[in-house]
Structure formats: structure tokens, C-alpha cells
Amino acid sequence: FKTIYKRTIMYLKVLPTNRAIREHISIFLQTDTFLPKFISIGDFFQRVIYSPNYTIISDELRIVFLQQAIKNINVKPLGLSLDFGMFLKQSEYIIKFFNELAGEFKTIEDLHNADAYAHYLDHLEILSCIQKEYHNILLKNNYLDQSLLPIYYKINQDYIKQFDKIYIIQEGVFSKFEQKVLDDISK
To answer: CA 126 to CA 2: how far, in whole Å?
Structure first.
């Protein structure tokens, strides 16, 4: 008498939001089937990307490091305040700017060549100095943020290999970096 075990196919369903996950689960609950594993796209990217030699910086420490980076840079032409309370609000814009550039594999120097930014060359120069100093501080302290991740990331093969299939349902557009990560995973 021989028993044959059939291996269950493991698949992951990646959805845009936690709300979409709840909606999908409610549909599956009406059927008599095993639920697939669900995850949001944000959580998916956090699990499939890592950097072996660095830690992702916390929001709080990121602001401290950014404030250290601007200490010796004349940021008055940008309208940045050295007051911590004001800088807290303004730092979001700087971080988002750096992150968006990195997500599209662009640099501040790339913007120098665009006619649309010709009136802002002095601002771009200041931002470039801030970015270089900020990145130096991050790397010196073994931290990364989203603006450095495209340079230092690795794919978490152990996480990916546990699934036979991964289905991604996305609303909106992936950044070039996110698309590259998905291309790397598909290989």
C-alpha cells in the first residue's frame, strides 16, 4: 500500500492596498478553497529587497542626518530654515525629491541638462551638495534610504523561492526602479 503525497502549489497574490486584500479575501471566503497568501505591494517590495551591509534608516534618524548634512551648506536660497520645527516639514520635500530621482534612475546632474530647470541651476547645485553630504553621512553610518536603495539592493531569493507563482495586481505606474526589481524577480 503506497501513499502518494501531492505537493501544494504555493502562490502569492500581490495587491495594491490592504483594502484590496480584504476585498479579495471576502470573495475567497464564499468558496470552498485554500486561500492564497496575500500581501500589499508596499510590503512585497520591503520583503523582496534588502541590502546585506546596510540598515534602512528610520524616519526620525533620517531627519537628523539631513539636518547634519545642511549644517555647512548655504541653504537660504532654497528657503530652508535651520529651525528644527520648520526644517521637519521642509525636509519631507527634499527627501521626496531625492527618492523620486533615484526611483527613475536620474541624478540632479541630469536635471542640469533639461531646459525646464535652467532657471533653477543654483538651486540644483545646492541640492546636489546636500544630497552628496547626506549620502556620505548615511553610508558612513551604515544606513540606506530610498534614494540609495537602487544602488545597493539585492533580491531576497529565499523569500521569492518559497512561491511557485507570484501574481501582481497593480493600479498605477511602477517607477523604473520598481520595474527593475520586478524584472530581476521574474528571472
So the answer is: 73
Model confidence pTM above 0.85: no
Question: Running DSSP on this structure, what letter comes out for residue 74?
Answer: -
Q: Map grid coordinates 526644517 to a residue.
A: 87
With CA atoms as reference, report the closest residue to 11 among 125, 166, 159: 166
Model pLDDT for residues 154-180, shown as the tens digit of each residue: 999 999 999 999 999 998 899 999 999
The overall longest dimension of the chain from CA atoms, in Å, is 83
Length of the chain: 187
Quote the CA–CA distance of 142 and 165 in Å, as a whole number.
34
**Is there a contact between 181 and 48 (Cβ–Cβ < 8 Å)?**
yes
**What 3-state class would DSSP assign to 93?**
helix
Q: Which helix (H) or strand (E) holds 166?
A: strand 165-168
pLDDT tens-digit profile of 64-92? 999 999 998 999 888 888 777 888 888 99
